[in-house]
Design brief:
Blueprint: H1 16-22, E1 34-37, E2 47-50, E3 55-60, H2 73-84, E4 89-94, H3 112-127, E5 136-139, H4 151-164, E6 168-172, E7 193-195, H5 198-209
Parallel strand pairs: 3-4, 3-5, 5-6
Antiparallel strand pairs: 1-2, 2-4, 6-7
Helix pairs in contact: 3-4, 4-5
């Protein structure tokens, strides 16, 4: 279990650029296989995944305890779905970077600094996709997005970044009655990804708030 020690606003954050520059210098994991930023266990995580030229970028709500070579069941499912859909690697990214095993323990208010650095990480991931290839971004957060009012706004920023790279949004599994994309856990290993209209989804969420 990971329960945040305090609101993320009360901790000193390492910027994404600094965390990226520091990563890959220890001997705790295979740096040729894994990308992990920051590359040590702390109260937040920007990126965790495997290296490749054609990654499936899975978007959850917030990170939990997973690390290189120590994946939780959600990440194991993400890895299987990526391989089953022809991707050579996977990246686990999150709408909000604060670690919390239970989403109920996330910040009550958005930490704008943490969000800003997280968006830099997302931009970096999309920029690494080979030219001429549209990044594959898998919406995979389920109903957890309802836990905090600020989360749809964070997704909106991700969509705007994705548009600059012509990202294609995908989902896998049954869409919920409320329109939420399925969480990776409990998906069949042969589940196929399909296009997901992220703009329509966000519009529905916005209308529901009125």
């Amino acid at each position: 279990m990971h329960i945040p020690s305090c609101p993320s606003q009360e901790i000193d954050l390492i910027s994404f650029e600094e965390a990226l520059a520091r990563s890959g210098k220890g001997d705790d994991y295979d740096h040729d296989r894994w990308i992990y930023v920051p590359d040590f266990y702390t109260e937040y995580r920007y990126i965790l995944g495997t290296r490749g030229n054609n990654p499936l970028i899975c978007i959850g709500i917030n990170p939990s305890t997973a690390e290189p070579d120590h994946l939780d069941n959600t990440l194991k499912s993400v890895s299987r779905i990526a391989a089953g859909n022809g991707f050579d690697s996977f990246i686990m990214f999150n709408v909000y970077a604060q670690r919390a095993t239970s989403p109920d323990d996330m910040d009550r208010c958005c930490n704008e600094e943490l969000h800003r650095e997280n968006m830099k990480a997302f931009d970096y991931l999309l920029s690494r996709i080979p030219e001429g290839t549209r990044p594959a971004v898998w919406a995979a957060w389920g109903a957890i997005i309802e836990k905090r009012d600020y989360l749809p706004c964070c997704v909106e920023d991700m969509v705007s970044i994705g548009e600059r790279y012509r990202a294609r949004w995908l989902c896998a599994g049954k869409i919920s009655v409320k329109g939420h994309p399925h969480h990776p856990l409990y998906l069949r290993k042969d589940e196929k990804t399909v296009p997901f209209d992220i703009r329509h989804y966000l519009n529905v969420l916005e209308e529901r708030k009125k």
